[in-house]
């Protein structure tokens, strides 16, 4: 699966007839992507994100906005879209949020 306006396509899929839904093995992924906040989904569409990025943002831990910011941070660092391993590794290390919070947040 390549790049494309996945949010737009998944939003269309969400409203497609039920008989069409049963033909896809990615049914739940499409519906989950369609539930992304409109701003996040449209931003990913405009940036030409691959479907793995949508999947990470839609299914990962925490809020979609936080995961979207993390993916954009990784893309800026790497100069390309991160792969699955890079996204999950950065998420477990708390990505850009850890930098914003600073050392004072961990001293409790």
Overall description:
The chain is mainly alpha-helical and 108 residues long. It has one domain. Helices cover 66% and strands 0% of the residues. The protein contains eight helices and no strands. The model is unreliable at 95-108 (pLDDT under 50).
Broad structural category: mainly alpha
Portion in beta strands: under 5%
Q: Report on the biggest sheet.
A: none
| Count of extended strands | 0
What is the residue-averaged pLDDT? 76
Q: How would you describe the shape?
A: globular
Low-confidence stretches: 95-108
Multimeric organization: single chain
Radius of gyration: 15 Å
* Terminal-residue CA separation: 45 Å
Task: Count every helix, treating DSSP H or I runs of 4 or more residues as helices.
Answer: 8
SSE run: HHHHHHHH
Q: In the residues, how many domains can be counted?
A: 1
Q: What does the secondary structure layout of this molecule look like, with pairings?
A:
Blueprint: H1 6-14, H2 18-21, H3 27-34, H4 38-47, H5 51-59, H6 64-78, H7 84-92, H8 95-101
Helix pairs in contact: 1-3, 5-6, 6-7
Short account of what is shown:
The protein has 108 residues and is mainly alpha-helical. Helices cover 66% and strands 0% of the residues.
Summary keywords:
108 residues; mainly alpha; 8 helices; globular; disordered C terminus
């Amino acid at each position: 699966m390549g790049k494309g306006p996945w949010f737009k396509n998944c939003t269309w899929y969400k409203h497609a007839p039920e008989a069409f839904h049963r033909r896809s093995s990615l049914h739940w992924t499409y519906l989950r992507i369609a539930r992304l906040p409109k701003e996040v989904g449209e931003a990913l569409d405009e940036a030409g994100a691959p479907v793995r990025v949508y999947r990470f943002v839609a299914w990962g831990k925490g809020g979609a906005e936080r995961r979207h910011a993390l993916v954009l941070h990784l893309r800026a660092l790497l100069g390309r879209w991160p792969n699955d391993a890079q996204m999950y590794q950065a998420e477990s290390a708390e990505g850009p949020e850890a930098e914003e919070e600073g050392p004072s947040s961990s001293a409790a």
